[in-house]
Amino acid sequence: MCIQTYSFYRNMNIRIIDIARMAGVSTGTVDRVLHNRGRVSEEKRAKVEKVLKEINYEPNMVARFLASKKSYRFAILAPTYSSGDYWQLVCEGIDKATDELKKFNISTEYFLFNQYDRFSFINAVNSFKEKEFDGVLIATLFGDYVIKLSKELDAKGTPYIYIDSGISGQKDLSYFGGDSFGTGVIAAKLLLNEVGTVADIIIAHIRFRYKEISVQMKTRENGFMEYLENNNFRGNIHHIEINPDDYTMSLLQVKDIINNSQGLVGGIVLNSRIYELVTLLEKLDADQQNKIRLVGHDAIERNVKGLREGRISFILSQRPELQGYDALKAMGNYFLFKQTPEKVNYMPIDILIKENVDYYSNYKL
């Protein structure tokens, strides 16, 4: 057992018997150390105190905070979502953390926006500004607007945590999410191993109302392209736009790329919507489909389906539930225990294939 992995919140229900087991002493010894009564050998006292320090043990923590009647309110600026979407998983992690923090008089309120509409983000921010909050979690899809909001929060002294993608040079309390640049690098490496250095590669962009793309997508593309440049890629990059309501134009483009390619063709989408490219490719004949290899991001239901069916070779996932959960718990730690989190907290980059995705899908916080 790695004792250091315990957090404040996991420890609040630790019993004397648990401490005794970790220290290798009796429960009576632990009780005497906690209440400073009775005789305890220096060796056993040192063992118990070592465990108490490592698990940050504080007795009656909940009762003490409830008695203080101090409460904290956190705002969540995040995208709307449909069932099975990436942002549903992030928000489920936030909701789980919120449920655990309720006993400490902590509450959260969502301000949701359309991730493809910058004016929707502005409206959500304006609604948020009408109320007072102690801290804020911010999904950073619209970089320039997030920076503007961040400077306003700096002026007010309101701490904020970025989720999903970091923005350098800001005064955010912390960032929880994936290493977007690193994910782009890994995606390029996987794709080159599949199709080779002289292949055609399709970077598919899913159409939405405004032309700007998220901070995460820009950073992923930078990592992807840098890896290709540094590893002797001599093929062709094709940027195509997919309109989910009308595949006519993009289907013709993909057919032309595949038919004119001498070997395998790679394909990638820089956000969680690789399933849109899978749907488009299903309209090709079998020989054309067999010539393309796909790498996608995020283990949402529709992407996992494509992986299981062999239509996607790899999915890179950054544990969205965990980033939402950890981000809110870090904000709680900051206010309750004056703990300042690490500035950057990268989630693991998990590489999923058909053979291991079911084990990953069964993982729950």
Automatic annotation (TrEMBL):
The keyword DNA-binding applies. SMART domains: HTH_LACI. Gene3D superfamilies: 3.40.50.2300, lambda repressor-like DNA-binding domains. One of its GO terms (molecular function) is transcription cis-regulatory region binding. Keywords: DNA-binding, Transcription, Transcription regulation. Pfam families: LacI, Peripla_BP_4. The keyword Oxidoreductase does not apply. Residues 14-68 form the HTH lacI-type domain. This is HTH lacI-type domain-containing protein. It comes from Dysgonomonas mossii DSM 22836.
